[in-house]
Fold this sequence. Notes:
The chain is α+β, with helices and mostly antiparallel strands. It has 2 domains: 12-47 and 317-364, no CATH class; 60-303, no CATH class. It contains 4 helices and 18 strands. The protein has helices spanning 12-58, 307-315, 318-335, 342-364; strands at residues 62-79, 82-92, 96-110, 113-129, 138-140, 145-151, 162-165, 168-171, 173-174, 185-190, 198-210, 212-216, 221-228, 233-236, 243-247, 250-258, 267-269, 298-301. Strands 1, 2, 5, 6, 9, 10, 12, 14, 17 and 18 form a 10-stranded mixed sheet that branches. The protein is elongated, with a radius of gyration of 32 Å. The protein starts with 11 loop residues before the first helix and ends with a helix. The relative contact order is 0.17.
Amino acid sequence: MDVTIKSNKKPQWALLFKLGFIFILICLLLIPISWITEMIYERQGLQQQVEKDISRAWGNAQTITSPILVIPFSKNKVVDKKTVVEDFQLYVAPENVNMVNNLKSEVRTKGIFSTIVYDDDCKIAATFDLKNIKDDERQYYLNKAFIIVGLSDPQAIVAGITSDINGLVSKSFPGTNDADFVKSGFHTPVNLVDIKDVMTFSSVLNFRGTSSLRFEPTAKVSTFEVKSNWASPSFIGRNLPAERNITSAGFNSTWKASEFNRNTPDSWIDAAYVSSSTNMQQTNLEYVNPNIENDLPGVELIETANHYHKNLRSIKYAFLIIFLSFLMYFSAEIFQKVRIHPIQYALIGISLVVFLHALTFLIRTNWL
């Protein structure tokens, strides 16, 4: 008598069919994921555009270059047996600089987007050593000297600038008086005729900026201090603050730089050296600052919980979530002999699609 034994083992083609079906479902689910990813990138682009619009009206990210003394002089030169007078500018770096910045930060919004701006009350103090400014072959115009302070966006200066030279109040003017070292900022005329050895310079200015503030040291000893009511600072550049104190009410940080951290000597002539924040087009410079502006020390005011970054990180795990969900059910079907219909796989995929559309709605309504 012949006995036919039926096997409960599934045919090989059935497993291949389900694997193919699962692969097709994953590919279909990647379509709404790509839509969400594109939308997040689009929102990030709009956020950056809003930051540019607000910074254009309020003030861009600022970079302050420490004071530099500029002294015009002339020197005789013999050309074809004729004496020709050539004009030059001598740049003198300060001995020490102390800069205190008080940032009053706030959030400016445009539609559903926002950016961080600040109002800076800046106090600058510098000391110059004039003992070595002597040369018999040069004719110095000491009554035409001036001090320049670099500011990357001088149009954001709120009010007039008050300066002090050796205890006497001096008036500062816009621009850097055609100085080659830095192209934007302000300058203060100074008469060096009656100043012998040491000159002190101090200035108080109020300017606005967006997101970040950087410093460029030029002195032998530089100290930069920043106080702010923003509780989430990010210290940037290659020189981190020597001291810092961060609380829920704000932060206080201090940078210290020596002559080894600057990229200028004690003095130089004309455009031999240029500022990091100055876009120079000359190719005949004796020295071009190797540091890009992003290497300068400073602080950036940031949002610790940027919802677009959070959503972008979450959506990157979407494929892994979908793959693990199907793998879990397929493993249960193989090892625990639980039969799962393809329609059930489709329902799982539909639930994931609903979740992704819900996430899209939350992003669109700015809930996430």
